[in-house]
């Protein structure tokens, strides 16, 4: 594909996290990620209807501090592992740095969701939220 189409995304919120430095963030949500708050724009408040504490959701974020030119990495940043294409890894550095996080809702307060399982750093834009279907754990 010589001229891929341009796609425009609009953030619907942001992550508020005690972790600001990507190097200090957990590699995965279940590896010590702190509880974070997802703060949604009031313009999308109606889209949060039906979300309750205890729900498992798939959170899509824009990893705004990622290197978009990276195509090959050592998985998990471990130089002892062979170089691997980013599409075969969960590396945040990739051409379109979309983060995928399985989170559990701990509390809902208007347009704010307190969640566990999110390793995104403070200020990370939120793109979307979807319910987990079936038993994917």
Keywords:
137 residues, mainly beta, Elongation Factor Tu (Ef-tu), domain 3, 6-stranded antiparallel β-barrel, two-stranded antiparallel ribbon, 32% strand
In summary, what is this structure?
The protein is mainly β and 137 residues long. Helix content is 0%, strand content 32%. The chain is globular, with a radius of gyration of 16 Å.
Structure description:
- The chain is mostly beta strands and about 140 residues long.
- The chain has a single domain, classed as Elongation Factor Tu (Ef-tu), domain 3 (Beta Barrel), CATH 2.40.30.70.
- It is about 0% helix and about 30% strand.
- A hairpin with a 2-residue loop joins strand 6 (about 100-110) and strand 7 (about 110-115).
- It is globular, with a radius of gyration of 16 Å.
Query: What's the N-to-C terminus distance?
Result: 36 Å
Q: Which fold name fills CATH's third level, the topology?
A: Elongation Factor Tu (Ef-tu), domain 3
What structural category arises from helix and sheet content? mainly beta
Fourth CATH level, the homologous superfamily: YaeB-like
Helix and strand arrangement:
Layout: E1 13-16, E2 36-40, E3 56-62, E4 72-73, E5 84-85, E6 98-109, E7 112-116, E8 125-131
Antiparallel strand pairs: 1-2, 1-8, 2-7, 3-6, 3-8, 4-5, 6-7
């Amino acid at each position: 594909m010589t001229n891929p189409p341009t796609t425009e995304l609009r953030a619907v919120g942001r992550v508020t996290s005690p972790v600001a430095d990507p190097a200090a963030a957990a590699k995965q949500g279940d590896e010590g990620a702190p509880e974070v708050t997802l703060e949604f724009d009031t313009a999308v408040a109606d889209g949060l209807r039906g979300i309750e504490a205890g729900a498992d959701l798939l959170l899509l974020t824009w990893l705004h501090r990622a290197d978009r030119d990276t195509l090959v990495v050592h998985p998990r940043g471990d130089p002892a592992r062979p170089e691997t294409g980013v599409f075969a890894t969960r590396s945040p550095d990739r051409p379109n740095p979309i983060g995928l996080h399985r989170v559990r809702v701990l509390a809902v307060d208007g347009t704010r969701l307190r969640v566990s399982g999110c390793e995104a750093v403070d200020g990370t834009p939120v793109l979307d939220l979807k319910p987990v279907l079936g038993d994917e754990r």
